[in-house]
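Q: What would this chain look like folded?
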Amino acid sequence: MAASIFAAVPRAPPVAVFKLTADFREDGDSRKVNLGVGAYRTDEGQPWVLPVVKKVEQMIANDNSLNHEYLPILGLPEFRANASRIALGDDSPAIKENRVGSVQSLGGTGALRIGTEFLRRWYNGNNNTATPVYVSAPSWENHNSVFMDAGFKDIRTYHYWDAAKRGLDLQGLLNDMEHAPEFSIFILHACAHNPTGTDPTPEQWKQIAAVMKRRSLFPFFDSAYQGFASGSLDKDAWAVRYFVSEGFELFCAQSFSKNFGLYNERVGNLTVVGKDADNVQRVLSQMEKIVRTTWSNPPSQGARIVATTLSSPQLFDEWKGNVKTMADRVLLMRSELRSRLEALGTPGTWNHITEQIGMFSFTGLNPKQVEYMVKEKHIYLMASGRINMCGLTTKNLDYVAKSIHEAVTKIQ
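A: My prediction, written as structure tokens:
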């Protein structure tokens, strides 16, 4: 028999976070803890279907007017409008001036991909693959991959995490922006920076915006945790709204995986803010062509859940309460972990645990300490030292804190 025509295809390395989850599942140790997975868990360690989502799903199931016809290529209109509204705010001048458009996408990743494909074809001239793209160091690994796969050739990093201070390297970040070529594209985390959990303050965002405006740099926000980070939709959208108020044209990729718990529905939106209505409509016309050859038409179920919830004042309030429940649990786990580490006298400072925000915390553990945690303590976390605070529960907090103490004490 002839050799396969695919014989020369190399096996790609597994995606780290999903490999970690697979290893966790195969581990038979009763003490095991999964701090790797990027999803919310209750204090019992279980996935949570938001009560408001259950209610809306029932409403959709009982609505005899609905069918399974194709949605428009750009998505469900009421979903797109409401998604952009919560990103930019009810009183957004950009919305009032009709210079906002949006594209329903397959999750936040799909929003990033559609935006990236458009930028590669049309940003600052046709097919400008040589435009530098700046991604924070560190960042969610998909940021690099999405731009690389879209054909961008010059992907760079900008300073973000200061390992010594366990906080934001603002001066390094501003310096990189000052020296970036004009019209460079910068990927910015709207809130709850992944993986560090470290966000600029409003005053620092103002400094960042001032440099970006002066240097004609393009902001591409990734907003995966609005409401989930602080419990406040407005607070978590502050940076995006400030940039809009400063007159920027920008893209904002939104995900509803975390704040609606719709992980497997793949509900995302790409909000486009332009100079005027005509600009936005021309951009959307090109994005429609990109969507047509990518997934053609988006799925409806998740989009209907979000649109129905955001359109009803009562359901909207209920959703905000559900989101605050999740955010408050994460904030509680942060304070509890920090207090335990400090009570144990764990070497180093641990205030960064509570100063960071969102689902993830950059612990500061080095790769050897992480290896000890995984192999000796059966506590699964990323090699970078990133942990998912949702993996902590009142039942495993003491064990995790003592294990971190051991790792830091025994291994330098």
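The mean pLDDT is 93.
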